[in-house]
Amino acid sequence: MHVTSEQRLDDGVLERTFTLGEIPGILWTPAAASASAPVPLILLGHPPLGLGRMYPRLVARARHSAAEGIATATIELPGSGDRPRWPAADRARAELRRALAAGEPVTDEIIDALILPLVERAVPEWQAALDAVLALPEIGGPVGYSGGVISIGVRLAAVEPRIMAAGLFAGSFVPRAMFEEARRVTIPLHVLLQWDDEGNDRQAALDLFDAFGSAEKALHANMGGHTGVPEFAADAAGRFFSRHLK
Amino acid sequence: MHVTSEQRLDDGVLERTFTLGEIPGILWTPAAASASAPVPLILLGHPPLGLGRMYPRLVARARHSAAEGIATATIELPGSGDRPRWPAADRARAELRRALAAGEPVTDEIIDALILPLVERAVPEWQAALDAVLALPEIGGPVGYSGGVISIGVRLAAVEPRIMAAGLFAGSFVPRAMFEEARRVTIPLHVLLQWDDEGNDRQAALDLFDAFGSAEKALHANMGGHTGVPEFAADAAGRFFSRHLK
């Protein structure tokens, strides 16, 4: 992990950009975090639109967590932002756009091609980022995962034992294989669903929520469209993490 | 409204029992409520099991609201508790029990007979209770409605303009006629659904949530069975009312 820039935001949050091999990332730590007072960590997931484009929303979530005494970290997804193009991912996205434009159904084949390779490549990268960030003396854990492509969150929740709680955003296509994987998830879950998210398959989101094996799982459905998660819903997600990570 | 008893609970909450004609009720006000500092009000709904049996859960909700500076009031449902038996309601309940015991489907006819007359009789009573309680100088409004038989809440939310926000518990049978009524509800809603409530029709609850016309509506689904609403879910409902009534 190579720190490439470091700045204090106005609220005292320390923002460091880094690279992990070829992967860019950002780490935010609360002002008070130190080796003698290490803090919990939330991995901030995001859609594959590039960290640059996602930065405003990510830093808002980071400040929110920092105010609760929790550090946050995120890395670029494969094929996104400044990372090398990924022709297979580009083809899968083009195929999705073509089907949507033609008014055709989004088939399992399209969804699998879009999501499964992304999960396969991204999850080990997030685990490597976790190794690197947890090696810092001011980051102590426990660790949560929040948002982004829900299938990446499901896989991480299922396979990464250091993740103790996950906040998932049910706003992207879910390959059928993920429903089986969801049954193996047992950590506390907080699932956000935008009820009136027209591009989203609401029934698939409900089925996925039903499939999770967790004894504690909460679904919060709200209005406001795909990007219109109400502030009170973000606050509720924050309280979920505070309850489980602090 | 005739006050029949009055006591201070250990946290300073004033508990008054009253009768409104033949209908018994209870009113809880925060210690600090006064004519010069009137407080908001939440009507506490409950299932038709009698106020005596429901008292422990009702007083817990009342104390929770009082700590937020909100008064609460409840009245006995027709045919329940110490009120005169209601043969038609008893027959409808017996018919439901018979169908359940025989493993038969709970038909629309059974649900209508069980719920619609209860809504028809209860709603004007709750409106009369609202008249009486709002006449007290220490109760100022705004008014919320919380919990109990969801169809009573839906009707009140649709027809009673003084109710500004409703927290509904999706845990009882919903007559088909209520889905149409739900479309006319436009106030902010916070709907609790116990996802693993085996006796409850989850799909009907989701359909009802979908039907509400409110621009702000939130569905919070949790685990824990019919009576096992997690404490954090009760807290979230409390925050919903604080946001809208204070």
Describe this structure in words.
The structure is a homodimer of 246-residue chains. The first copy, chain A, is of the alpha/beta class and 246 residues long. Chain A has a single domain (2-245), classed as Rossmann fold, CATH 3.40.50. The first copy, chain A, is built from 7 helices and 9 strands. Chain A has a 9-stranded mixed beta sheet, with helices on both faces. Chain A is globular and about 55 Å long. The A-B interface holds A 195, 206, 209-210, 214-223, 230, 232-233, 236, 239-240, 243 and B 195, 206, 209-210, 214-223, 230, 232-233, 236, 239-240, 243. Strand 9 (217-222) of chain A pairs antiparallel with strand 9 of chain B.
In short:
The structure is a homodimer of 246-residue chains. With 246 residues, the first copy, chain A, is an alpha/beta fold.
Structural class determined from secondary elements of chain A: alpha/beta
CATH class label of chain A: Alpha Beta
H/E element sequence of chain A: EEEEHEHHEHEHEHEH
Beta percentage of chain A is 15-25%
Number of strands of chain A: 9
Total domain modules of chain A: 1
Specify the helix fraction band of chain A. Answer: 40-55%
**Largest sheet of chain A at a glance?**
9 strands, mixed
Largest interface: A-B, 21 and 21 residues
Indicate the CATH architecture of chain A: 3-Layer(aba) Sandwich
Oligomer: homodimer
Q: What is the gyration radius of chain A calculated from CA atoms? A: 17 Å
